[in-house]
Structure prediction request, 340 residues.
Amino acid sequence: MPVQTQNATAGRWLWTCRAGFEAHLYEELAWAEAAPRLLGEALVESDAPEGPPPAFARAGYQVLAPLPPGPTDAQADAVARALTGQRGARPWVLQAFTPDTPRGNTRAAAAEALEAAVRARLPAERLLDDARRAREAGALLVGLCVAPDGVGALGLVAAREALSLAPGGRRRMRREGESPSRAAMKLEEALDGLALEPGRGDVCVDLGAAPGGWTQRLVARGAKVVAVDPARLMPELAAHARVEHVQESAFAYAPDAPVDWLFCDMAWRPLEVAQLLAKWGRRGWAGHLVANIKLPMKDKNPILHRVRHILVEDGGWAGLTLRQLYHDRDEVTVTAHRVR
Ligand SMILES: C[S@@+](CC[C@H](N)C(=O)[O-])C[C@H]1O[C@@H](n2cnc3c(N)ncnc32)[C@H](O)[C@@H]1O
Prediction:
Protein backbone atom coordinates (compact mmCIF):
# COMPACT_ATOMS: atom_id res chain seq x y z
CA MET A 1 0.00 0.00 0.00
CA PRO A 2 1.53 3.34 -0.99
CA VAL A 3 2.00 5.68 1.97
CA GLN A 4 -0.22 8.74 2.29
CA THR A 5 1.31 11.92 0.94
CA GLN A 6 -1.65 14.20 0.16
CA ASN A 7 -5.04 15.23 1.41
CA ALA A 8 -8.40 13.90 0.22
CA THR A 9 -9.36 14.65 -3.37
CA ALA A 10 -12.60 16.46 -4.29
CA GLY A 11 -15.04 14.22 -6.16
CA ARG A 12 -13.55 10.95 -4.85
CA TRP A 13 -14.94 8.84 -1.99
CA LEU A 14 -13.54 8.90 1.51
CA TRP A 15 -13.93 5.63 3.41
CA THR A 16 -13.39 4.92 7.08
CA CYS A 17 -12.57 1.45 8.39
CA ARG A 18 -11.60 -0.42 11.53
CA ALA A 19 -7.97 0.26 12.50
CA GLY A 20 -5.74 -2.47 11.10
CA PHE A 21 -8.13 -3.26 8.23
CA GLU A 22 -6.86 -0.59 5.82
CA ALA A 23 -5.09 -3.18 3.66
CA HIS A 24 -8.26 -5.25 3.28
CA LEU A 25 -10.32 -2.19 2.32
CA TYR A 26 -7.58 -1.03 -0.04
CA GLU A 27 -7.45 -4.45 -1.72
CA GLU A 28 -11.24 -4.56 -2.18
CA LEU A 29 -11.19 -1.14 -3.82
CA ALA A 30 -8.21 -2.10 -5.99
CA TRP A 31 -10.08 -5.24 -7.14
CA ALA A 32 -13.02 -2.98 -8.02
CA GLU A 33 -10.58 -0.83 -10.08
CA ALA A 34 -11.48 2.20 -7.97
CA ALA A 35 -7.88 3.50 -7.67
CA PRO A 36 -7.61 3.50 -3.85
CA ARG A 37 -5.15 5.63 -1.89
CA LEU A 38 -4.34 5.38 1.79
CA LEU A 39 -4.84 8.74 3.53
CA GLY A 40 -3.76 7.59 6.96
CA GLU A 41 -4.77 5.15 9.66
CA ALA A 42 -8.35 3.93 9.14
CA LEU A 43 -8.89 6.24 6.14
CA VAL A 44 -8.83 5.30 2.45
CA GLU A 45 -10.07 7.25 -0.58
CA SER A 46 -11.04 5.94 -4.00
CA ASP A 47 -13.13 6.53 -7.07
CA ALA A 48 -16.77 5.45 -6.77
CA PRO A 49 -16.55 1.65 -6.96
CA GLU A 50 -18.68 -0.27 -9.44
CA GLY A 51 -20.83 -2.90 -7.80
CA PRO A 52 -21.48 -3.36 -4.10
CA PRO A 53 -19.92 -0.98 -1.56
CA PRO A 54 -16.74 -2.25 0.05
CA ALA A 55 -17.35 -4.67 2.93
CA PHE A 56 -14.49 -3.28 5.03
CA ALA A 57 -15.75 0.33 4.88
CA ARG A 58 -17.63 1.54 7.93
CA ALA A 59 -18.77 4.76 6.27
CA GLY A 60 -18.25 6.54 2.96
CA TYR A 61 -18.68 10.20 1.91
CA GLN A 62 -18.14 11.82 -1.45
CA VAL A 63 -15.52 14.50 -0.91
CA LEU A 64 -16.78 18.01 -1.66
CA ALA A 65 -13.47 19.59 -0.71
CA PRO A 66 -10.41 18.82 1.41
CA LEU A 67 -10.40 20.84 4.64
CA PRO A 68 -8.11 23.84 4.27
CA PRO A 69 -5.31 24.14 6.82
CA GLY A 70 -5.63 26.77 9.44
CA PRO A 71 -7.64 27.82 12.41
CA THR A 72 -11.09 26.37 13.05
CA ASP A 73 -12.88 29.58 12.06
CA ALA A 74 -11.25 29.65 8.62
CA GLN A 75 -12.07 25.97 8.10
CA ALA A 76 -15.67 26.54 9.21
CA ASP A 77 -16.01 29.52 6.84
CA ALA A 78 -14.81 27.36 3.94
CA VAL A 79 -17.14 24.48 4.89
CA ALA A 80 -20.18 26.76 5.25
CA ARG A 81 -19.41 28.42 1.91
CA ALA A 82 -19.06 25.07 0.16
CA LEU A 83 -22.32 23.78 1.67
CA THR A 84 -24.44 26.83 1.04
CA GLY A 85 -23.07 26.98 -2.52
CA GLN A 86 -24.65 23.59 -3.22
CA ARG A 87 -27.99 23.41 -4.99
CA GLY A 88 -31.01 21.86 -3.26
CA ALA A 89 -32.64 22.28 0.11
CA ARG A 90 -32.32 18.86 1.71
CA PRO A 91 -31.71 18.83 5.46
CA TRP A 92 -28.14 18.39 6.65
CA VAL A 93 -26.91 16.18 9.47
CA LEU A 94 -23.49 17.44 10.61
CA GLN A 95 -21.10 14.62 11.46
CA ALA A 96 -17.62 15.56 12.60
CA PHE A 97 -15.40 12.54 13.17
CA THR A 98 -11.83 11.45 13.55
CA PRO A 99 -10.26 8.18 12.41
CA ASP A 100 -10.99 5.47 14.99
CA THR A 101 -7.42 5.08 16.24
CA PRO A 102 -5.51 6.39 19.28
CA ARG A 103 -3.79 9.00 17.06
CA GLY A 104 -7.07 9.88 15.40
CA ASN A 105 -8.69 10.40 18.78
CA THR A 106 -6.16 13.12 19.61
CA ARG A 107 -8.05 15.23 17.03
CA ALA A 108 -11.43 14.79 18.76
CA ALA A 109 -11.48 18.25 20.36
CA ALA A 110 -10.61 19.87 17.01
CA ALA A 111 -13.40 17.91 15.31
CA GLU A 112 -15.94 18.96 17.93
CA ALA A 113 -14.88 22.60 17.68
CA LEU A 114 -15.18 22.50 13.89
CA GLU A 115 -18.66 21.01 14.04
CA ALA A 116 -19.81 23.71 16.47
CA ALA A 117 -18.30 26.48 14.33
CA VAL A 118 -19.90 25.12 11.14
CA ARG A 119 -23.25 24.72 12.90
CA ALA A 120 -23.16 28.37 13.97
CA ARG A 121 -22.69 29.44 10.34
CA LEU A 122 -25.52 27.45 8.78
CA PRO A 123 -29.24 28.26 8.72
CA ALA A 124 -30.77 26.41 11.69
CA GLU A 125 -33.81 25.30 9.68
CA ARG A 126 -31.60 23.21 7.38
CA LEU A 127 -30.00 21.30 10.26
CA LEU A 128 -31.42 18.00 11.46
CA ASP A 129 -30.11 16.93 14.86
CA ASP A 130 -31.52 13.42 15.09
CA ALA A 131 -29.55 11.24 12.66
CA ARG A 132 -32.05 8.41 13.20
CA ARG A 133 -34.62 10.48 11.28
CA ALA A 134 -32.19 11.26 8.45
CA ARG A 135 -33.39 8.57 6.04
CA GLU A 136 -37.08 9.42 6.25
CA ALA A 137 -36.27 13.15 6.04
CA GLY A 138 -34.23 12.61 2.84
CA ALA A 139 -31.26 14.28 4.57
CA LEU A 140 -27.65 14.55 3.51
CA LEU A 141 -25.00 13.43 5.96
CA VAL A 142 -22.26 16.05 6.06
CA GLY A 143 -19.00 14.37 7.07
CA LEU A 144 -16.34 16.60 8.61
CA CYS A 145 -13.30 14.36 8.78
CA VAL A 146 -10.56 15.71 11.02
CA ALA A 147 -7.49 13.46 10.91
CA PRO A 148 -3.85 13.76 12.03
CA ASP A 149 -1.10 15.15 9.76
CA GLY A 150 -3.28 17.91 8.33
CA VAL A 151 -5.60 15.46 6.59
CA GLY A 152 -9.24 16.48 6.59
CA ALA A 153 -12.23 16.58 4.32
CA LEU A 154 -15.76 17.79 3.88
CA GLY A 155 -17.84 14.98 2.39
CA LEU A 156 -21.49 14.31 1.63
CA VAL A 157 -23.64 11.22 1.34
CA ALA A 158 -27.40 10.82 1.09
CA ALA A 159 -28.62 9.25 4.33
CA ARG A 160 -30.65 6.70 2.36
CA GLU A 161 -27.49 5.45 0.64
CA ALA A 162 -25.16 5.76 3.62
CA LEU A 163 -23.41 2.67 4.97
CA SER A 164 -23.95 4.00 8.48
CA LEU A 165 -25.84 6.86 10.08
CA ALA A 166 -23.12 7.28 12.71
CA PRO A 167 -20.37 9.88 12.21
CA GLY A 168 -17.61 8.11 10.29
CA GLY A 169 -19.42 4.84 11.02
CA ARG A 170 -18.37 5.00 14.69
CA ARG A 171 -21.58 3.66 16.11
CA ARG A 172 -21.04 3.60 19.84
CA MET A 173 -23.80 1.87 21.74
CA ARG A 174 -24.34 1.70 25.44
CA ARG A 175 -24.36 -1.88 26.64
CA GLU A 176 -27.80 -2.72 27.88
CA GLY A 177 -27.93 -4.04 31.43
CA GLU A 178 -29.66 -7.29 30.53
CA SER A 179 -27.49 -8.07 27.47
CA PRO A 180 -25.24 -11.05 28.00
CA SER A 181 -22.67 -10.27 25.30
CA ARG A 182 -21.11 -7.83 22.82
CA ALA A 183 -22.85 -10.03 20.25
CA ALA A 184 -26.18 -8.40 21.13
CA MET A 185 -24.81 -5.03 20.01
CA LYS A 186 -23.65 -6.56 16.72
CA LEU A 187 -27.19 -7.77 16.12
CA GLU A 188 -28.81 -4.42 16.93
CA GLU A 189 -26.37 -2.67 14.61
CA ALA A 190 -27.12 -5.15 11.81
CA LEU A 191 -30.88 -4.67 12.24
CA ASP A 192 -30.46 -0.89 12.12
CA GLY A 193 -29.82 -0.93 8.42
CA LEU A 194 -32.78 -3.12 7.46
CA ALA A 195 -36.08 -1.95 6.00
CA LEU A 196 -37.87 -4.74 7.87
CA GLU A 197 -37.02 -5.94 11.38
CA PRO A 198 -38.00 -9.08 13.27
CA GLY A 199 -40.91 -8.45 15.59
CA ARG A 200 -43.88 -9.79 17.48
CA GLY A 201 -45.02 -13.20 16.28
CA ASP A 202 -42.11 -13.76 13.89
CA VAL A 203 -40.44 -17.15 14.03
CA CYS A 204 -36.65 -16.94 14.11
CA VAL A 205 -33.98 -19.61 14.03
CA ASP A 206 -30.71 -18.59 15.70
CA LEU A 207 -27.80 -20.84 14.67
CA GLY A 208 -24.87 -20.69 17.10
CA ALA A 209 -27.10 -19.01 19.68
CA ALA A 210 -25.24 -19.60 22.97
CA PRO A 211 -24.92 -17.96 25.41
CA GLY A 212 -27.93 -16.09 24.04
CA GLY A 213 -27.24 -12.43 23.24
CA TRP A 214 -29.02 -12.54 19.88
CA THR A 215 -31.81 -14.80 21.13
CA GLN A 216 -32.39 -12.44 24.02
CA ARG A 217 -32.69 -9.41 21.71
CA LEU A 218 -35.10 -11.28 19.42
CA VAL A 219 -37.27 -12.42 22.32
CA ALA A 220 -37.31 -8.83 23.63
CA ARG A 221 -38.76 -7.81 20.25
CA GLY A 222 -41.59 -10.30 20.70
CA ALA A 223 -40.31 -13.04 18.38
CA LYS A 224 -40.28 -16.80 18.94
CA VAL A 225 -36.78 -18.24 18.71
CA VAL A 226 -35.42 -21.69 17.97
CA ALA A 227 -31.90 -21.43 19.40
CA VAL A 228 -29.60 -24.05 17.86
CA ASP A 229 -26.30 -24.62 19.64
CA PRO A 230 -24.64 -27.62 21.34
CA ALA A 231 -23.52 -25.20 24.10
CA ARG A 232 -25.67 -24.00 27.01
CA LEU A 233 -27.99 -21.03 26.84
CA MET A 234 -28.39 -18.65 29.76
CA PRO A 235 -30.85 -20.34 32.13
CA GLU A 236 -33.49 -17.59 31.88
CA LEU A 237 -33.54 -17.98 28.10
CA ALA A 238 -33.56 -21.78 28.16
CA ALA A 239 -36.66 -21.57 30.38
CA HIS A 240 -38.38 -18.83 28.34
CA ALA A 241 -41.78 -19.73 26.86
CA ARG A 242 -40.86 -18.30 23.44
CA VAL A 243 -37.46 -20.01 23.24
CA GLU A 244 -36.84 -23.58 22.13
CA HIS A 245 -33.24 -24.70 22.63
CA VAL A 246 -32.16 -27.36 20.13
CA GLN A 247 -28.92 -28.63 21.61
CA GLU A 248 -27.27 -29.97 18.45
CA SER A 249 -25.05 -28.90 15.59
CA ALA A 250 -26.57 -26.44 13.13
CA PHE A 251 -25.31 -28.71 10.36
CA ALA A 252 -27.66 -31.46 11.59
CA TYR A 253 -30.69 -29.22 12.16
CA ALA A 254 -33.63 -28.69 9.75
CA PRO A 255 -36.76 -26.65 10.59
CA ASP A 256 -40.17 -28.36 10.68
CA ALA A 257 -41.61 -25.58 8.51
CA PRO A 258 -40.18 -22.43 6.84
CA VAL A 259 -39.47 -19.61 9.30
CA ASP A 260 -39.46 -15.81 8.96
CA TRP A 261 -35.86 -15.12 9.90
CA LEU A 262 -32.59 -17.02 9.94
CA PHE A 263 -29.88 -15.67 12.24
CA CYS A 264 -26.40 -17.15 12.41
CA ASP A 265 -23.44 -16.22 14.58
CA MET A 266 -21.72 -19.60 14.58
CA ALA A 267 -18.04 -19.65 15.34
CA TRP A 268 -17.16 -21.91 12.42
CA ARG A 269 -15.32 -21.93 9.08
CA PRO A 270 -16.76 -19.24 6.79
CA LEU A 271 -17.14 -21.28 3.62
CA GLU A 272 -18.90 -24.11 5.46
CA VAL A 273 -21.20 -21.60 7.17
CA ALA A 274 -21.91 -19.97 3.78
CA GLN A 275 -22.80 -23.36 2.32
CA LEU A 276 -25.16 -24.04 5.23
CA LEU A 277 -26.84 -20.63 4.73
CA ALA A 278 -27.07 -21.34 0.99
CA LYS A 279 -28.88 -24.60 1.78
CA TRP A 280 -31.43 -22.62 3.83
CA GLY A 281 -31.87 -20.22 0.91
CA ARG A 282 -32.24 -22.92 -1.76
CA ARG A 283 -34.79 -24.80 0.28
CA GLY A 284 -36.77 -21.67 1.08
CA TRP A 285 -36.46 -22.39 4.81
CA ALA A 286 -36.29 -18.68 5.81
CA GLY A 287 -37.45 -15.35 4.38
CA HIS A 288 -34.70 -13.13 5.80
CA LEU A 289 -31.08 -13.68 6.75
CA VAL A 290 -28.74 -11.97 9.21
CA ALA A 291 -25.43 -13.78 9.62
CA ASN A 292 -22.07 -13.01 11.11
CA ILE A 293 -19.20 -14.61 9.19
CA LYS A 294 -15.91 -15.11 11.02
CA LEU A 295 -12.78 -14.15 9.09
CA PRO A 296 -9.78 -14.99 11.29
CA MET A 297 -7.51 -15.69 8.29
CA LYS A 298 -4.91 -13.24 6.95
CA ASP A 299 -6.21 -13.22 3.40
CA LYS A 300 -9.82 -12.17 3.91
CA ASN A 301 -10.98 -10.83 0.54
CA PRO A 302 -10.74 -14.10 -1.45
CA ILE A 303 -12.86 -15.80 1.24
CA LEU A 304 -15.39 -12.96 1.25
CA HIS A 305 -15.63 -13.16 -2.50
CA ARG A 306 -16.46 -16.86 -2.28
CA VAL A 307 -18.93 -16.33 0.58
CA ARG A 308 -20.80 -13.77 -1.55
CA HIS A 309 -20.82 -16.14 -4.53
CA ILE A 310 -22.08 -19.10 -2.49
CA LEU A 311 -24.90 -17.09 -0.88
CA VAL A 312 -26.13 -15.50 -4.13
CA GLU A 313 -25.43 -18.16 -6.76
CA ASP A 314 -25.90 -21.34 -4.73
CA GLY A 315 -28.34 -20.00 -2.14
CA GLY A 316 -30.46 -17.60 -4.20
CA TRP A 317 -30.27 -14.97 -1.42
CA ALA A 318 -31.13 -11.51 -2.78
CA GLY A 319 -30.45 -7.93 -1.65
CA LEU A 320 -27.19 -9.08 -0.09
CA THR A 321 -25.27 -6.61 2.09
CA LEU A 322 -21.89 -7.64 3.41
CA ARG A 323 -20.28 -5.27 5.91
CA GLN A 324 -17.80 -5.09 8.71
CA LEU A 325 -19.96 -3.26 11.24
CA TYR A 326 -18.62 -1.05 14.01
CA HIS A 327 -19.07 -3.88 16.51
CA ASP A 328 -17.53 -6.53 14.23
CA ARG A 329 -13.95 -7.52 14.88
CA ASP A 330 -12.39 -10.20 12.63
CA GLU A 331 -15.79 -10.79 11.06
CA VAL A 332 -18.39 -9.32 8.73
CA THR A 333 -22.18 -9.25 8.87
CA VAL A 334 -24.38 -10.39 6.00
CA THR A 335 -28.03 -9.45 5.49
CA ALA A 336 -30.25 -10.77 2.68
CA HIS A 337 -33.77 -11.88 1.85
CA ARG A 338 -35.43 -14.44 -0.37
CA VAL A 339 -36.85 -13.25 -3.67
CA ARG A 340 -40.63 -13.17 -3.31
C1 LIG B 1 -19.89 -16.12 19.01
S1 LIG B 1 -20.77 -17.39 19.79
C2 LIG B 1 -22.42 -16.90 19.50
C3 LIG B 1 -22.87 -15.79 20.39
C4 LIG B 1 -24.35 -15.58 20.33
N1 LIG B 1 -24.80 -15.03 19.06
C5 LIG B 1 -24.82 -14.64 21.43
O1 LIG B 1 -25.34 -13.60 21.10
O2 LIG B 1 -24.68 -14.97 22.60
C6 LIG B 1 -20.55 -18.73 18.70
C7 LIG B 1 -21.37 -19.96 19.00
O3 LIG B 1 -21.29 -20.84 17.88
C8 LIG B 1 -21.52 -22.12 18.38
N2 LIG B 1 -21.23 -23.13 17.37
C9 LIG B 1 -20.03 -23.50 16.86
N3 LIG B 1 -20.21 -24.51 15.99
C10 LIG B 1 -21.54 -24.76 15.94
C11 LIG B 1 -22.35 -25.69 15.23
N4 LIG B 1 -21.83 -26.57 14.38
N5 LIG B 1 -23.68 -25.66 15.43
C12 LIG B 1 -24.24 -24.78 16.27
N6 LIG B 1 -23.51 -23.89 16.98
C13 LIG B 1 -22.19 -23.89 16.82
C14 LIG B 1 -20.65 -22.17 19.62
O4 LIG B 1 -21.08 -23.21 20.49
C15 LIG B 1 -20.87 -20.77 20.19
O5 LIG B 1 -21.85 -20.81 21.21
